[in-house]
Amino acid sequence: MRANYRMQRLFVEADLAVSEPIQATAEQYNYLANVLRLGEADEVLLFNGRDGEWKASLHFPTRKRLSMTPQEQTRPQPALPDLVFLFAPLKVGRMDYLIQKAVEMGAGLLQPVITQHVQGKITSLERLQANAVEAAEQCGILAVPTVAAPLRLKDLLEVWDHQRRILFCDEDSATNNPVDALRAIKDTKIALLVGPEGGFSEDERGLLRALDFVTPIPLGPRILRADTAAVAALAVVQAMIGDWR
After folding, report:
1. Is the pLDDT of residue 1 over 70?
2. N or C, which end of the chain has less CB nearby within 10 Å?
3. Domain 9-75 classification at class level
4. What is the 3-state secondary structure (H, E, C) of the chain?
5. Which CATH architecture has domain 83-241?
């Protein structure tokens, strides 16, 4: 069932159940009452990543308080997509974009990976999670992926589940076309690894290529910025072996 884009959607932390009012946060109050100018008995859509999507009516018990009362479920809760997105942190503005696009493209878990040439750093997981929530609000997504704590590439590979194949974007691949490599993938569990602006080091590339659960894929004849590479790679993976089929 597709999302209703004519109504405002909000993410809430509280459980959602019929006729169980939820107190709006100060930010939600300001947005709904002062920015959107919604009033008594107007309706919004609520989701929490667990209980599906609910239509809720607004009630203003005082001038500074707003409660949102779920009336009916409009969409059931789907499972998280089974695509893990591994990425080297970027600078703040571009990392916000990266998180948002990964959520839109169907990532189910967002895992920052620290590589040798990484240029960005994780200063706030809460900020990144808020970007994931915002993308879900805007795009009608109900299953909100978690942004995990960062791991060094070597540490990640040491604890990796070998049943989940890692596709890593390799700018030194001998070919420009990822299609043949993706067609050869028979695994049902997939992760996509996108490196930093400086690319993977030779040691990292050698480490990845030596593992039997890792497959390098190219992304065409041009060197792409890391955030562009992420969107391009997510698109081709979803189209070839993901949930676009």
Report:
1. no
2. C
3. mainly beta
4. CCCCCCCCEEECCCCCCCCCCEECCHHHHHHHHHHCCCCCCCEEEEECCCCCEEEEEEEEEECCEEEEEEEEEEECCCCCCCEEEEECCCCHHHHHHHHHHHHHCCCCEEEEEECCCCCCCCCCHHHHHHHHHHHHHHHCCCCCCEECCCEEHHHHHHCCCCCCEEEEECCCCCCCCCHHHHHCCCCCCEEEEECCCCCCCHHHHHHHHCCCCEEEECCCCCCCCHHHHHHHHHHHHHHHHCCCC
5. 3-Layer(aba) Sandwich (3.40)
